[in-house]
Write a structure and sequence with these properties.
It is built from 12 helices and 8 strands. By secondary structure, it is α/β, with parallel strands linked by helices. Bound molecules: ligand L6N33NVT and fe (ii) ion (2 copies). One fe (ii) ion (FE2) binds next to loops.
Length: 367
Amino acid sequence: MPRFSAKDAFKHDDTPRLGVLVANLGTPDAPTAPALRTYLAQFLADPRVVEVPRLLWRIILHGIVLRTRPAKSARAYAEVWTDEGSPLLVISRAQTEGIAQRLHSRLEGPVAVELGMRYGSPSIPKALQTLRQAGAERLLVLPMYPQYSGATTASTFDALADELKGWRWVPELRFIGQYHDDPAYIACLAASIREHWEAHGRGDKLLFSFHGTPQRYLLDGDPYHCQCQKTARLVAQSLQLPDDAWQVTFQSRFGREVWLQPYTDKTVEALGKSGLKTLDVICAGFSADCLETLEEIQGENAEIFEEAGGGELRYIAALNDRSDHLDMLTDLILSHAQGWPEAGGGARGRRDTEETGELATAQGAES
Ligand SMILES: C=CC1=C(C)c2cc3[nH]c(cc4nc(cc5[nH]c(cc1n2)c(C)c5CCC(=O)O)C(CCC(=O)O)=C4C)c(C)c3C=C
Ligand SMILES: [Fe+2]
Ligand SMILES: [Fe+2]
């Protein structure tokens, strides 16, 4: 068995394709404690996510966390689960399909698009192998995280590198690090807020709630916090909001450490206590709705707000498969694919037959 893997059934006249990997976090296979245990064991063992000395963390993870958290998280997932499955997976599939359709109609050359999840399935290794089988000799990776974080974007890179280091023929590679200040992305967020206001009236305050990370990651050089602030500031500017009409907070705290602040739940509670009537909340770091937006914000935080004496918390949906969002992501992919033949940057749309004739002869392959 060769040490490095290769595409099955190589044919000398295969047409090389641009491969696009749409990557996101991933989700459990079912809203049950056993499925959550499998998912959380993979997720929380990632050193990019939990930066604690390995031996110590392994003892805590297997001795405490994986004994208690799966059942609790399964109950939360059950509240948002749909007939088609987990919202994150259902929406990610629709996004991938929408991006693929747009790329097929806009690119000169052939393209293959696959969804790969960092944890759970469809996995990143599986998606990469499918792209290789489709002839993707150039690979563009879009992690669906607008703001770069080591915990998400770099972790996607790790999964990519882990798979590719076992390949004989590594594809040409481009990796989109972030798009937190892309004008088209800011315009999509602003449009979604305007539409929400047109449908429901303007709330008394707009909260931008981002997923948190330990504060330590920021102090150790992670750009995530700054990029979240910038996204919110640009959207607020685009909507011409006065400073007291909006605020940034961080949600989904995990463990006992200090995380990025101010915390969403504490802020929502304080705003409720202050007697605020309507609170609009947008989660501008999530490209797709998921447990953290639907259960935590639309569910849990809406209750916190009301119980504290506030009026109504109105959650503004993630950009999901809105057409302006998919158009924007397609433009982003195309701008990063500049200069590649399939993106119109060269003459070599098909493999040179003379060149591959030699290769096929050398391998004894059928011509
Ligand atoms: C333990 C530390 C965690 C860090 C750091 C973290 C960072 C982080 N996560 C997202 C996006 C998502 N996280 C989601 C779920 C989720 N996150 C953590 C923990 C950390 N995340 C856990 C344990 C879970 C699972 C649910 C639970 O048990 O609470 C999700 C939702 C997935 C879904 O299936 O719907 C997303 C999306 C970002 C963007 C981020 C850092 C920037
Ligand atoms: Fe998370
Ligand atoms: Fe949560």
